Amino acid sequence: MNTHRLFKNTGWFALPILVAVGLSGCNQAQSEINEPVIKPVKVVLVPELNFALVSSYLAQVDATDRAQLSFQVAGQISSIDVKMGEAISQGEILATLDPTDYQVALDAKQAEFDLAESQWQRAKQLFAKKLISADEFDRIETQFKAAKASLAQAKADLGYTQIIAPFDGVVSMTYQKPFEVVGAKQPILNLISSDDLDVTFTIPVTEVKAMTLEELKNQHFFVTLDSHRNQRIEARFREIAMQPDLDTNSYAAAVTIVKPNNINVLSGMSGQVHIQSEAKERAFSLPASAWISQQAASGKVWRFDPVTEQIHQIQLSTNESGAVTAGLQQGDQIVVAGAANLVEGQRVKLWTREGGI
Questions:
Q1: Which of 1, 42, 172, 214 would be a feasible disulfide site paired with 190, CB 3.0-4.6 Å?
Q2: 299 & 263 share domain
């Protein structure tokens, strides 16, 4: 009787223990089910999509303004007032001839003119009173005009005994010395511009035909010198020949540079002219596994955010071959494997092989 009651009490005592164990097991299973699974994905890094084409051509530095200066009359050099390499200003006197003979000639022509003018003034009065014939008046007037022209020439010849700088520049060469006798238009010195320099080069006909003259003018030009290959000198378009050279099948062209302060750029130096075209966007291809959906000219993919480790859907434009033409930026990480069954904002992790990436 007591034994049966003990058995019954023990059974009732064990039941709560089994129930507690069962509930504990359910809670553990429920915890494992609620733990989010972070899916691994494989991504591709988008490279630089903008690129600029740079074409280079052999070139040579030349002066933008260049002049070989000479006296317009003959005579003995009185002075050469500049030296080779000297910087000069526009209007500065560079060299002078002995002006004595030309001053004497001017004085004589002045006297002849004064006499002819006096005779002409008197003849006008006489002709008005009909005291001389028309032929006589014409003769006197012709003499006056000739004397006036001779005086103007004598003044010009005296002025030609000086060489005046036509522009700011540098004396690149002197040919004569003081006290030497020179003829008219015999070279005395060379003058080149000091600040702006031309750089001449040739462009193949095929490349010129690929663009209009206006497009060529608007290209980005820069120059490098063989002596300073790492220094880039900005340039601007100056001119191009209207007809190509038949021997080289190319056009002669020139750009202008401002002489840099840190290097000595001289006429005759060799280098290269570079023409950099405008940056263009190139197409970028993604594997078929990257596309969530794809239509004729667009499609959608997942972009991975490395900061939040989440994915976000973006729409891209494509060309006829399916390559991406717009919507991507350099550095974007696009999911290319494991893209199936993902949802917006889902947290993922980058796929790695055992032992490393």
A1: 172
A2: no
